[in-house]
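Homework-ish question, so no full write-ups if that breaks the rules, but can someone show me the predicted structure for this set?
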Amino acid sequence: DAKTTQPTSMDCAEGRAANLPCNHSTISGNEYVYWYRQIHSQGPQYIIHGLKNNETNEMASLIITEDRKSSTLILPHATLRDTAVYYCIVSRGGSNYKLTFGKGTLLTVNP
Amino acid sequence: DSGVTQTPKHLITATGQRVTLRCSPRSGDLSVYWYQQSLDQGLQFLIQYYNGEERAKGNILERFSAQQFPDLHSELNLSSLELGDSALYFCASSVVWTGGAETQYFGPGTRLLVL
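A: Not a homework solution, just the prediction itself:
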């Protein structure tokens, strides 16, 4: 699986958009970009995934650059409950693929 | 609530002992993954089962073993426990989307403390 690089930490004001970047310059054509988050000591939570196109769901938007070497997770209106460690993971599709978690980005949403 | 359940929530035991952690996947999910999260190692994949069969192994110690039963629940057995086995243990079940992407849904975890 391709390696990802994320900032160690970021701050965001409550109500503002949080934009979390991820670099995955060695991504291959059949690898998806997944985002998960982990709120302190809880189980990781799936947020969104994408292959080539931008994606949006009720939690977030995922913007993938045309060359697929980087992506940005956007939380449109961050709340205090969005404070968590956010993991960007690149992995092939199909069943039976383990997730390789890096250190992620600690997003702190401030009042 | 992910739909994945884990018991017990907390476990305190002594070195040298053996414990069993239990996981029930979401209804209909055939895969179960086990992960260990310790302070210094982050989230590490241990092992995966699919419909009762072992599919993939990660950084799982020989003292640890797992199985998945016909009703699809899974158990992770940890034996000859050491202080360093103190960690959060998560299980996850997964869904494969049309197109091939797979997303995992994690349980709340079992916090193991070895004294």
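Now go work out the reasoning yourself. Hint: Chain B touches chain A at residues 2, 4, 31, 33, 35, 42-45, 48, 50, 55-56, 58, 88, 90, 92, 94, 96-97, 99-109, 111 (CB under 8 Å).
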